[in-house]
Specification:
Elements: E1 4-7, E2 18-23, H1 41-47, E3 52-56, H2 66-70, H3 81-93, E4 98-108, H4 110-121, E5 128-132, H5 143-150, H6 156-160, E6 175-181, H7 190-201, E7 207-211, H8 222-236
Parallel strand pairs: 2-3, 2-4, 4-5, 5-6, 6-7
Antiparallel strand pairs: 1-3
Length: about 240
């Protein structure tokens, strides 16, 4: 069983169809489906924008069985996204107000990598993604975190689990925004810059917001947050 939540917009009207926004942070350290109301504030902020907001856990997250968790080992690129896709489609089957032709995804840190992976590998569902300070290559993050899930020494699995490796798979119709802070001390800004360079080399379209004095996950606040909201409005036709 995959657990998740759905948050509906204010003034929700079941006769209408709403775009869907997934807020993702598929980190093997824990589980991220909220279990109490105090942890849903950021999700409600997106619901106020007119989205059906979803958040769920897939294979690889923690605090289930060992077999459930072991899926993440040397397999961070998977992010449990197959489960996320099935969950969203199944939820929409009995909720016609979820418009699956307009699905966006946003995340920061490992969630940023997850968001890009969703667009690259599941572009039939996800139409637009914003990756804020994403961990796009485990070789550019802190060893104390990456080696827990990817092991040591650094081998070919690190390349296989980098979104940079799959940049050529970005679809022409997909819409991607990358955000990075120049003062990020958690994930090296080079991870996002190298992804942007590879996308450019592959002739792919994307948008990049560089915040010179920004720290980790700086995009989901201040002026850049407004730019992200405008990006999704444009892409998902709000």
């Amino acid at each position: 069983m995959i657990y998740g939540i759905i948050i509906r917009p204010i003034n929700f009207d079941a006769s209408k169809k709403y775009p869907v926004m997934e807020y993702i942070y598929a980190n093997p350290e824990g589980f991220y489906t909220p279990k109490q109301f105090g942890y849903t504030g950021r999700l409600y902020e997106w619901a106020k924008e007119g989205y059906i907001v979803v958040q769920m856990d897939g294979l690889g997250t923690n605090w289930r069985s060992k077999k459930f968790h072991d899926v993440c080992y040397k397999n961070l690129i998977d992010s449990g996204l197959t489960d996320h896709v099935l969950w969203i489609k199944e939820a929409a089957r009995t909720r016609p107000w979820m418009d699956l032709s307009r699905v966006g995804i946003v995340g920061c840190s490992i969630g940023g990598m997850n968001a890009v992976a969703a667009l690259l590998h599941h572009g039939d569902l996800y139409k637009a993604a914003v990756a804020d300070c994403g961990s796009h290559d485990g070789r550019l993050g802190g060893a104390i975190w990456n080696e827990q899930w990817m092991g040591y020494p650094v081998d070919d699995s690190y390349t296989e689990n980098s979104t940079i490796t799959y940049a050529s798979e970005l679809r022409e119709e997909s819409r991607l925004m990358l955000v990075v802070g120049g003062q990020d001390k958690v994930v090296h800004p080079a991870a996002t810059i190298r992804l942007a360079k590879r996308l450019q080399d592959e002739g792919k379209e994307y948008r990049l917001i560089f915040i010179p004095d920004g720290g980790h996950c700086c995009g989901l606040e201040g002026n850049s947050l407004q730019e992200i909201k405008e990006f999704f409005k444009e892409c998902l036709l709000l």
